[in-house]
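Before a colleague's protein record goes any further, I have to sign it off. What it holds is a sequence and that sequence's fold in token form. My question to you is simply how this chain folds and whether the tokens agree. Thanks in advance; the entry in question is below:
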Amino acid sequence: MQKLKFPRTPDQMAFYKTLRQRVNEYFQSEGATRYANTNMVFKTVLMFLLYLVPLSLLLLAPITSAWQVFVLYLIMGLGMAGIGLNVMHDANHGAFSRSKWLNNALGASMNLIGSSAFVWKLQHNVLHHTYTNVEGVDEDIEVPFLFRFSPNQPRYWFHRFQHIYAWFFYGLMTLLRTFLSDYTRLVGYHKQGLIPDKRLYRKEWIKLVVWKSIYYLATLILPLVLLPVSAWVVLLSFFIMHFITGLTLSLIFQTAHVMPTSEFPLPDEEGKMQHAWAVHELITTTNFAPRSRVFSWLIGGLNFQIEHHLFANICHVHYKKLSCVVQETAREFGLPYYCQPTFVHAVVAHMRMLRQLGRA
């Protein structure tokens, strides 16, 4: 990873320089902040309520029936996805507020929903956003053996069915993070040199164990002990909660990068990439459903993935308006700007890409 270099050719660098200048002019002309607005604050409160109110009722209210347990966990699943897509994501990119403290505090909400904010920032901010779709570095396309997300990965006979079984395993994503991959990634990042400070590594291990223990206790162990329902009801409801969250998050992120239009660039023998970083992001990323205001509001503006990758430090509430600037500038420089008209179109195209990768 440390050997990979993006070229800084004048023609490709001119695109990003021009784009940044136009984005700056947009905010100046609008007199708007790059960070959260009133709409974003309202949404943040709503997403936390969707998660914390059902959890409080599970632990404190006189719940007596299985369907009540199931409904409350179901709402918590929507709240988990809402926090992950809308609040934690912006905050951990430093896009929620000018205040570093507030960004860190809201970014830590990742720990409240069962994952590690520290591990996520290394995986997502550092690896995925810098080396999108680069085999061996971007862990979002690295699911060894089970999936073939890139034409540069080995193909096994069962990959011809991956477009069928993908949906079930997508639903397991947050469960795996909660119980397995956060631990293994923390160890792996230390070995890779991404966490060179041993004291920081030990500190993050302690935080990981403490946060995970609190999460296991509040969302699983105490409900199993306190609720007057069968254990299988709680376990199934907990599973459904995570399945909803995992499937939602997987579909949002995978339909942005594993698509028929996506490229999967590889470095040359000297570790040099073919395109400058901003151009690399354009050729590996796809938007979808640009006209759906409600859908965009619910998923944290991540249907505008191109804008997010180019300007991750800008709050997602501005992406829709910025998309016009980005699209126009890309067209002016003869660069692609991929976009699917609806989310359904994006999911179908992603499924087609999985099928193609499984058979090619």
Summary: Strands lie at 286-288, 338-340.
